[in-house]
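<instruction>
Derive structure tokens from the sequence
<entry> Chain with its tokenised backbone below:
===
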Amino acid sequence: MAPGAHTVAVIGTGKIGELMLSGLLRAGWPAGRLLATTRRQTRAEELATRYGIRVVDNLSAVAEADVLAISVKPQDAGALLDEIGPKVPADKLVISLCAGLPTSFFGRRLPEGTPVVRVMTNTPALVDQAMTAISAGPYATGAHLSLAEEMFTPLGSTIRVPESQQDAVTALSGSGPAYFYLLVEAMIDAGILLGLPRQVAHDLIVQTAIGSAVMLRDSGEHPVKLREAVTSPAGTTISAIRELEKHGVRAALLAALEAARDRAREIAAQSD
């Protein structure tokens, strides 16, 4: 599919919606084929000025677009679908970026047979390094999934998963950048404690994080093997790892991810 073969409307253009718009533009999607909706006039003017796209109301977006990318907050999705649901033709592709909401939530509020694709991406989309998981609803075909992949590939990597795995995806990669930022923040503070200037500690840790991530991606090695390559007998690294294990860092991460997964499930239950 050539960029711009479809008109895409981002409905509820917050942070994630804006990331999607900017990624499509970088991929060569014509601005004339992109629409956005937002509640606030100041936000509409900001988007139009920054990206050269048209900002319209929700019903105009439904009428004009081939693909509706819904990126409102989960708690706002019901009211939105009450507004636009009856106006959505059953052959129009709906892409949900609403964390925690299953495709069945949309299916109950859209005409029978409407194809819905559930997407979970993350904020590294801003630098074209997102991880985006894509799942098909009951009426979404392979062609619909391919179109969704075409739209999100410019933002980074994509993967298809069964929808039953999306809450785990939300916990692992949707929220994942926050865990890494927290870890980097703590390591910078540790560097300062050890006597390094803040900027030096920042530069050391950020580049170490980048290098480690690239090695994980490109080497094909299991992370245990890469860790062992750094861990000499009776050396500094094993002393540090002993402290991390003593303080339950691994267990804390497992518990944190389970909590995020459970919260995603709660959001879906509350929305119904």
User: Anything to note?
Assistant: The chain is about 55% helix and 15% strand. The beta strands are 8-11, 34-37, 54-55, 67-70, 93-96, 116-120, 130-136, 156-160. The two ends are 36 Å apart (CA to CA).
